[in-house]
Design brief:
- This protein has 13 helices and 2 strands.
- It has 293 residues and is mainly alpha-helical.
- It has a single domain, classed as Orthogonal Bundle (MetI-like fold), CATH 1.10.3720.10.
- The protein has a two-stranded antiparallel ribbon with strand order 1-2.
- The two termini are 47 Å apart.
């Protein structure tokens, strides 16, 4: 009895300590989420003094009847899968390659994570400067030095080249997160396991699958899931680099603040939440299936 009372007392004390944080999360996350669901069923006027009108599912029907929405979904899915897969593979490859002692390892680690810790705006405008059609160093090398083309390529003004460059930028920007996550796990693996694999005549790939891969399974699921969510909702990097890559974040922003259709924008955000939730469940299931095999 005393043990049960003590547990109840500890639980009550824990909830009392957590209550400020729970209240703050409810105010910052719960209320906006509920309000967003409410206005997704309404026609919201631009003038805040006017009342909103309940229109049922018309906002959702408008979203599903909009061809631009489906185009943005396809672009976003392709962009998300490309960046997530390549950044995870690159981060893991670099972490495995650098999982040894050598002179200047700390310096190399600092250089690798530099693109991840520098503010996005600085990196974005540096890339825009490099690919500028008038004074960019990339066009100077391509046109003036190597003479690959006679005309200056408009990198960010064409959908295909803009998509490729934004993908490369995000790959370079985000792969250090995967590198740091995998590097922390790899440094904790007992080196004698690799020595035992070598004595058994295992190839580097067999050693990786037998020793490294089982150790990074939980981290792999976390990295892929979080990176999928972050890239799926990406806005800043794409919008500031180019207007030619119509990902869902840009589509949602234009709907809310360019056309001022707040009800439809709220409906889009609900649909996006459902899409990313289903996508993450699918990815986690696929990764876990690979792990079980």
């Amino acid at each position: 009895m005393k043990t049960k009372k003590r547990r109840k007392g500890d639980a009550s004390f824990a909830y009392a300590l957590l209550s400020p944080s729970l209240l703050l999360m409810t105010l910052l996350i719960g209320y906006p989420m509920i309000y967003n669901i409410v206005i997704s069923f309404q026609k919201v006027p631009l003038n805040p003094r006017l009342g909103s009108e309940f229109i049922g599912l018309k906002n959702y029907l408008s979203v599903f009847r909009d061809p631009t929405f489906y185009h943005s979904v396809l672009i976003t899915l392709l962009f998300t899968m490309t960046v997530t897969i390549l950044s995870t593979v690159l981060g893991l490859a670099v972490a495995v390659f650098l999982n040894r002692e050598f002179v200047g390892k700390k310096l190399v680690n600092g250089i690798i994570i530099l693109s991840y810790v520098v503010p996005s705006v600085c990196l974005i405008f540096s890339w825009r400067y490099m690919f500028n059609s008038i004074y960019g160093i990339v066009n100077y090398v391509v046109v003036d030095l190597l003479h690959i083309t006679k005309e200056v390529p408009l990198w960010f003004d064409r959908p295909v080249s803009a998509f490729v460059l934004v993908t490369i930028f995000c790959l370079w920007r985000f792969f250090p997160y995967a590198y740091m996550s995998f590097n922390a796990i790899l440094t904790s693996i007992d080196k004698t396991l690799y020595e035992a694999a070598d004595l058994d005549g295992a190839s580097p790939w067999e050693s990786f699958m037998a020793v490294t891969f089982p150790a990074i399974k939980p981290t792999l699921v976390t990295v892929v899931s979080l990176r999928t969510i972050w890239v799926f909702y990406i806005y800043t990097e794409v919008y500031l680099l180019t207007k030619q890559v119509d990902v869902l974040g840009v589509y949602l922003y234009d709907m809310a603040f360019a056309t001022h259709d707040f009800g439809k924008a709220a409906a889009i955000s609900i649909v996006l939440f459902a899409l990313i939730f289903a996508l993450v469940l699918f990815i986690r299931r696929k990764v876990l299936v690979v792990e079980d095999e």
